[in-house]
Sequence to fold (307 residues):
Amino acid sequence: MAINHRHFIAAQKLSQMSTVHIESLGYVGGNATDLDGWRHFGGELLGMQIEERDTSLALRLDDRCQRILVDLSASNGGAYYGFQLSDGDALDAARLALQGRGVAVHIASVEELKHRGVEAMFHFVDPCGNRLELFCGLAAAEEPFQPSRPLQGFRTGELGMGHVVFSMPSIAEVLPFYTDLLGLRLSDYAEEPFKATFLHANARHHSVALIESAKSGLHHLMVELLSLDDVGQAYDKVKEEEGLVGATLGRHTNDYMLSFYAWSPSGFLVEYGWGGRAIDEATWRPERLQHGPSLWGHERRCCINRV
Ligand SMILES: [Fe+2]
Fold:
């Protein structure tokens, strides 16, 4: 099915009727065969606080108990994506709405709630098989945030922990799931140089983006820093290690994020950025992007053995 502006307007109207009210992207879970690699990558290079949890690493970005979970596994890749709702009532309404539309939802076990550090959660899969988790009550950490190396901090709060970008063979087949069912709103979209659709849940320009590619799964997750110098210093460190830069420093045309991309030990990219725009939903008008995806930079670097 071809995508055109009429489809987007229809999806936009449906998303406004959704009874699922996602506030933000709360956490991301990944699988890794090598936790040591993540201790180095997330901690020493990117400055996240690392906490040991049995067979997982909890990566902290702020006052919450964790924002990225890396679970020791036989394989690498993105594993689950947690979206925050306001409270238990909102969560119940969302679950009933999804069940009413035929989505198979699963209530989290006690172990899963403990592992995620949330009050309540249920999960289901999107049409591409990505495991999505809707939750409320991500616990605060007992200790203040302590980055692994000096930095000003990560921009989170009401904007959430960043954004995720999923690859898929057909955006048109998946988009209604995110807009109609999950209630995310269209920010903008591109047809060239590749098809991409950007969706927001709050003032962050996008919390989720869909890009068209032969593969399905997590393309990258983005975390945003409070200081440009924090990004520059991480870039210096990442550049020192052969094959780690996925895309050079650059600035995106739509969300204005000034960022670079690095290959995580889980095989997906981490975008490390600063300066993302906040949008005002009252005046925001979605449009087709004419230029992009970057104003400058973001040259892709291929790396052997990476996905
Ligand atoms: Fe991104």
Observations:
- The helical segments are 5-17, 35-45, 88-100, 110-116, 171-181, 228-239.
- The first helix runs from residue 5 to 17.
